Amino acid sequence: MVRLTILATAIGLASFNVYADSQVADSVAPEATNEVVSKKAVEAEEFIVTAAHPLAVEAGYDVLKSGGSAADALVVVQTVLGLVEPQSSGLGGGGFLVYWDAKEKKLTSFDGRETAPLAARPELFQDENGKPLKFFDAVVGGRSVGTPGTVKLLETMHQKYGDKPWSELMQPGIVLANKGFEVSPRMAASIANDQERLARYPDTKEYFFTQDGEPLPEGHLLVNKAYAQTLEALAKGGSEPFYSGQIAKDIVAKVTSVEDNPGVLAMEDFATYKILERDVVCSAYHQYDVCGMGPPSSGALTVGQILGISSHFDLAKLGADNPTSWQIIGDASRLAFADRGRYMADTDFVPMPEGLLDSEYLKQRASLIEEGKALTEVSAGEPPWSIKMAMADDESIELPSTTHIVIVDGEGNIISMTSTIENGFGSRVMSNGFLLNNELTDFSFAAHKDGYPIANRVEPGKRPRSSMAPTIVMKEGEPYMAVGSPGGSRIIGYVTKTLIAHIDWGMPIQQAIEMPNMLNRFGAYDIEAGTDAEKFKAPLEEMGFKVNVRDLNSGLHGVVFSDGKMIGGADSRREGIVLGD
Ligand code: GLY
């Protein structure tokens, strides 16, 4: 069955919905769904890979088939994705990665998030009167570009866990960039949807438009010699050319010379950039431990809070078809997002309560929820913490873009990585054949409110708070499931829905991914348009929710480990596939 959905029209910030106790809600979808095509789960016994574009998955499959490790396959999948899905992730961006080391039987995570330049100040996204800039005035140009982390993350993973020669792993991307690839329907739709911003800078315009000035159509053979040259340089010099050589110089020159909106990125930012290995953040849910990325991502903490609060209700018994289940999940999510907005940020820079996942605290938060009636008021709680500090609620804006990769190799090592350049097409500034991120707009534009500091304010060297939630679920000390999604701050709802659908409602992975998206972040309930879930609109409104029926453009990819098999699923809302043996 093919279900066509309507392309969202790019609109200005003025038409965002704003709720009393919320951040600005994201209603622009620069990476709108263009087509929904039903997919089937894929079973494998040895290795498996799933990502958002068939060419990237095929390249990763070839590496795994020839005995490569998950880290080897990651290098290939990401370098190809950066070429064929350039609107979502790439060398100019960053990401978070959760890793299961099968030999050490250890779960760990890697932070490849972009950093704010050392010259950045809390007023970065404010005008001369201290007023926050309009969202796209901040995004488009050099100002929003943080120090990219993806290349260093790939190199770190390869140095720690790779088997094949690094230079060999650059070859699939080089070959494809030189010979060209066909612009996919999704990429063509994304370009058409963002024409005005993509036409603002000559290099970007030249790449994404035909010689006649038309946005590249589906099927157009796109060659990217500059990208091939970049990968050649990485093949020869590792990350060095990117962080202290010519590529870094080119990026700095580009960012600082954007005439209408320059940035402050400098060589020093590249020279001091580091990948940080961090402990995973885990929360108990039924007989599972749901583990993911801690700060600067809010992903694992917020998913963990929603699950922890919801676990005080019998979702399994209530069932997926019951509006009360969704009321509970929605209100749990609102409570979690209130804490996220107040407390979650880069903890290398700001203190955060230690007790955000404390079971007594979550029980107390759950006691606020009344079955059958939406909460009338939601605010951040008072989780236990040792250094108590008054803070104001966040004012950052996150839009749906990004991509998720899951890879399992023949040794059982697992990668669950969410990768991004932030907004669809990032800052729209291109250098060396790839787009540069606009990750810094994940910071709060305001630095303080009512005299209190905002945790996620801009600071030099700080990493902007993320919603990315690359997840590995453990059962009795062994991996049970790996999952994640793109989607800005909706990532949290997409991942949580998939976990509850599988764990509480017994849906196989593909069905759990396909289940219509329903989520609530700041008060209004989002329901996926054109799906069976529209039937929940009236009952949720009766319970007191404001409901938006809209495109909910997840890109979930997941693998479940069961009875010695791996079952992989890919989201029908995007172009991804699963391959394995
Ligand atoms: N820029 C998307 C995220 O970090 O959540």
Description:
The protein has 581 residues and is an alpha+beta fold. 31% of the residues lie in helices and 18% in strands. It is built from 19 helices and 25 strands. The strands form seven sheets. It has a seven-stranded antiparallel sheet with strand order 3-24-23-19-18-11-10. Strands 9-6-5-13-12-4-25 form a seven-stranded antiparallel sheet, with helices on one face. A hairpin with a 3-residue loop joins strand 20 (518-520) and strand 21 (524-528). The longest helix is centred in the middle third of the chain and has 21 residues, at 323-343. Mean pLDDT is 92; it is low at 1-30. The structure holds glycine. Residues 398, 402, 420, 422, 442, 466-468, 488 line the site of glycine. Glycine binds at residues 398, 402, 420, 422, 442, 466-468, 488.
Set out the fold topology.
Blueprint: E1 2-3, E2 36-37, E3 42-44, E4 48-51, H1 54-65, H2 70-84, E5 94-101, E6 106-112, H3 135-139, H4 150-161, H5 166-179, E7 181-182, H6 185-193, H7 195-198, H8 202-208, E8 221-222, H9 225-237, H10 240-243, H11 246-256, H12 267-271, E9 276-278, E10 281-285, E11 288-292, H13 299-310, H14 315-318, H15 323-343, H16 359-366, E12 403-408, E13 414-420, E14 430-431, E15 434-435, E16 448-449, E17 452-453, E18 471-475, E19 478-484, H17 491-503, H18 509-514, E20 518-520, E21 524-528, H19 537-542, E22 546-550, E23 557-562, E24 565-570, E25 577-580
Parallel strand pairs: 21-22
Antiparallel strand pairs: 1-2, 3-24, 4-12, 4-25, 5-6, 5-13, 6-9, 7-8, 10-11, 11-18, 12-13, 14-15, 16-17, 18-19, 19-23, 20-21, 23-24
The site of glycine has 9 residues, from loops.
